[in-house]
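Chapter summary example.
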Amino acid sequence: MADTVTPEVRSRMMSGIRSKNTKPELIIRKGLHSRGFRFRLHSSGLPGKPDLVFPKYKAVIFVNGCFWHGHDCNLFKWPSTRLEFWKNKIERNRFRDTEVMAALEKKGWKILLVWECALKGKGKIPLPEVLEECATWLTGTHSNKEIKTIHED
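The structure predicted for these 153 residues follows.
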């Protein structure tokens, strides 16, 4: 499918996408705060600057966009233009994610990944269920967890 906007407009659109305070991140923050959880945001003292840091639980939450992290779900689709550029960029992101997770684990932090597809799209999970999973994970003993879309086969 051909792009419907010029390369200049597409470039401006893509550069305007934020890495902090995204809509999915704000949804998780608001929901956990209303459940009584207190956290720090984007702590530069930790590898990867996690979106939410819970020092009390020695836990971090990353709210990942499916496109930018190359998630295998129905929200991710390779762009049709500049494919080599995007493959390199997304592979670098995946590699960095792996390094960040290993560094956090080495420091004794537990890690939760909440994927964008869990909050929107065809297979989304109801928000109260996502928040309950987050809360249960925070107060539990499991070290790492992912919350992602429900696959429909």
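To summarize the output: The longest strand covers residues 59-64.
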